[in-house]
Hints:
Layout: E1 2-3, E2 9-14, H1 21-34, E3 39-43, H2 49-58, H3 66-90, E4 94-98, H4 101-109, H5 115-123, E5 131-136, H6 139-149, H7 160-171, E6 178-182, H8 187-195, E7 199-200
Parallel strand pairs: 1-7, 2-4, 2-5, 3-4, 5-6
Amino acid sequence: MKVKKNIPLFIVFEGIDGSGKTTISKMLQDMLDKSGYKTLWLREPSDSIWGKKIRELANLKDAIPIEEELNYFIEDRRIDLKNNIVPALKDGKIVILDRYYYSNGCYQGARGLDVNKIIEKNLEFALTPDVTFIIDLPVDIALDRIKNNREETAILFEKKDYLEKVRNNYLNLSFPEIKVIDGNDSIAGVFAKIKTVFDLI
């Protein structure tokens, strides 16, 4: 994929919790920044009022109704697109996003909703990324990383059986922009695989 200065590019990183996607996405931003490209790194949920509600409920013992949870994500994404993603792309920036609507499909899908219908609902208003990287690795390894690197874990979103379903949903996604990257390597090793996708001009 050719990357040109002042030409917008929308890159998304996905994967189960503990996959390393946040660290790797920031490594990509750092590489591009040092190469003279204009970038913006974002994460979802965002810092909107809806995003704050999502992060609060992730640490609660009792889940809210799944349809209500999904609505929080969608409302947060509408704001993120309007206030952050679209303006940055119009300004010729490379937007690097940690989680997007694929997460909704895979995580809420693991709780009983239809994965494809969730994504279709998002595609009614959301932009399709130029490339989406899914960093894939076994749940046991991801949970070990979380245990070793985080002081707190999200009770709802980081249970083993649940994450097994989420991972399976990710691996069953079929969209042309998706590239599945084997995460069974060091962070540096995984990033090396990501770098081969881009041709900096």
